[in-house]
Amino acid sequence: MLNENPVNMFYDPVLDREMVKYGYIVLPFLDENDITSFKSLYKKWHPKSPDEFYKSYFDTRIEYKEEVEKSIISIFEQKMATIFKNYDAFGGLFVVKPPTDKGHLPPHQDWSFVNEKEKWSINMWCPLDDVNDTNGNLTILKGSHQFTETIRGSGTPDIYREHQELIEKNMTSIPMKAGEAIFFFHGLIHGSKQNRTDKSRVCLGLTLTPKDSGLLYHYLDKSTNQLEQFKTTPDFYIDYAANRIEKPKIKGSQHNFEFKGLTQDELLLKIKLANQPENHTAGSMNNSSNWIQKIINRLLK
After folding, report:
1. Helix (H), strand (E) counts: the chain
2. Which ranges of 218-281 does DSSP label H, i.e. alpha helix?
3. Is residue 20's pLDDT more than 70?
4. In this prediction, what percent of the chain has a pLDDT beyond 90?
5. In this structure, which topology does domain 13-277 adopt according to CATH?
């Protein structure tokens, strides 16, 4: 295991265990009023949907990004307060997949925000309409956040690139209802299929990090092949994401790290182990059902 420490970001220890083992959980989250409000906000800024895969953080309009982020955080913080503890939230954004023939998002990992040998950071993804295999729902590779140590940033190599076909064959599709939220580690391998409907798939995104952990960003300088590490704040990303190919204009430091991938046999073994069924006792199964019901009850209050 890369990091066996409990996430310690949930009040319920069962959620911590589920996250550490599988790398993700799906919870009911937004109600109909919330969904309607976010759809209106999207239409305000997008009378016409983008014609390619899009994240609002990529936009250059700072006032737009700030309004979206503030709106998402204000709603989600209220709801997350009964589920999460010891966390900070930032990076609220729209994630849009239009109906095009180039909408397949291959398996990948998100940027690293913390030292993953010691801590975890989490991505939240929440669709505003039901999602399934026809309109680009998420697919994940269970347990892949634990397969091997990686660092991800601008220009860093994808150590799984040569295994994409094998990974795609072993990914799990995650259909979701509108307003449900999937929380997954940034190191979890995930992707999404092509949107084959006539309507853009619009989702909300948010980043959670352990409280007072500090944020890290990594940039691989191609001219020197040197990995640089930058200590950052949430404000850094809302401006930098639109210029993410450029080297950050803040002081960094050299960081030594070997980008070492897995052989096909090593990867196959890890996939097999991650998908082994657990021997659940009646008590553990009841506990799992209980915390889901508790969360539903909290969100319906």
Report:
1. 7, 13
2. 234-240, 264-274
3. yes
4. 68
5. Jelly Rolls (2.60.120)
